[in-house]
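User: Hello! My lab partner asked me to get a predicted holo structure for this protein. The small molecule is zinc ion, SMILES included with the sequence. Please write out the C-alpha cells.
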Amino acid sequence: MLLYQVGVDLKLLDTRSGRVLPVRPRLRYTTPQAAPATIIRNARIIDGTASGSQFDGGLWDILIRDGRIARIEPAGRLVSGAASELDAGGRAVLPGLFNLHWHVPWPGTPEVGSAAVALAHGVTFLREMGGNIEPDWVQSLAERIEAGQLLGPHISFVNRVIGMARHSASVDVDPFDKQTVRAQVERAKATGASWMKPYMKIPPVDAEAIELGHAAGVPVTSHFLFGGSLARGLDGKEHAFLYYRGENAIYREDIISAVRAIGTQITPTLAIILLRGISEPLDFTLLDPAWLSSFYAPSILADARLRLKAWVPIPAQDRVLAMNLENVRRLYDAQVPIPIGTDIAAPWQEMGVPLEMQLYRKAGIPPREIIRLATLEAARCVGVDRDLGSVEVGKLADLVIIDGDPLADFRVLQNPRWVIVGGAIVTPAEIAKSLQRE
Ligand SMILES: [Zn+2]
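Assistant: Hello! Below are the C-alpha cells for the protein in complex with zinc ion.
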C-alpha cells in the first residue's frame, strides 16, 4: 500500500491491484515554504461576475501570494517589496476559462499534450467527459498536473460512460444490467471520478444511475432528458439538443420550467455542430502554427487536415445549429445554468472555447454574461467556485492575460499573452516547450 497526496486529497494505492482509494478526511495544510509573491501591474480586469463588476474602468494591480489573489488595488498603489512584477500593460485580465465538455482525443493514443494545448489557449479547468479512454489514465494525468509534474489545467472527469459502445468497445459497459450500474458507482467512488454519465436512450438506466449515484454522492449528467430523471433530480444534461418523440425539438415552456425547478445544468456544446459541416466555412487558420506540432502526435494533425480538405457543407446541419441556438436562448432567458463546454477534441479544441462563446453571442446572450458562463458559472456548476472562476481576493490565481478586447470579439481569447495557473506565469510557447521534457 502506498499513501499519497493530491491537492487536498489523500489517496491509498494498492500496489498489487493498482486500485486507488480516496482516504477521508480531506487535508488542510499550508505550504511550508512561502512561494514568491508576484504583482500583475496595470490590468484591465474582467472579473467573471455578472455585469456591473467593481473593477470596471481604470487599471488595477493584482498581488498574487502562495498561488492565490492576495490583494487588488488601483494601479500604482501596491508597493513591490520582495514581489516580482509583471506589467500587463493595460491588457485584459480574466479568470482562466472552463471547458466542461472536453475529451481526451481519439483515435486512440493518450495525448498528454491535449490538456497542455487547452492551457496554452487559456483554459485552466477541464471536465473530461469520457468515452475514449479509461478514467484511470485521466486520473493519473490530473494528478500529475496537480502535483506540479506537468503544466496543464485542473481536470475533473467522468467515470466510464454507461452504455457507450459507439466510440470504443474497451470503455463500454452493459447498460441493461443493474449490477453494472452499481459497479460503476462503486468505481466512481474509488477513482474519485466527479461525475457519472449515462449515454443510452433508456430511461431506467438513467434512473438507476441517478439513484445510486446520489446515494454515493456522485452527480449524474446524461445525454438525454427523461421525465423520470428530472423527478429524481438529474444534475446535468450534455448538449442542447432535445429529443421529443424521436425528433430534434425546441424546449417547450413546461420542460424548461421543470429543468429550472430541479436545477439541472445543461452544457450546450454548440461548437461541435460546426465541425459536422455547416454551410458557412470556419476559419481554421489556427491549425497551422508550427508550435501545434509540439502538442500533438503528427497522426492527429494529419487526420485533422484531411477532414478539413474533405469539408462538405450539409444544409441540414444549419437547421440543427439554428434549433440549438434557439434552445440556448430559451434556457438562458429562463436562467437555467448553461456552462460553456465544447465537445471538440484535438486539435480543434484550441479554438473551441472562444468558438463556443461566439455561438452564445449568436444566440443573443450579452458578452459579459458569456464570460461569466465560461468562468464563474462553470466553476459553480462543478462545485469549485469557492476557489476558482473569478478575479477575486482569496481565490486561486488562475488567470489569463489577453491582448485586445474580449468583450468586443471573443477570438482574442484564442491566443493569451500569459496564462497563470497554480501560481506559475507562463506563455503558450513555454507550455509547448514544457512538453518536450516529457
Ligand atoms: Zn462529448
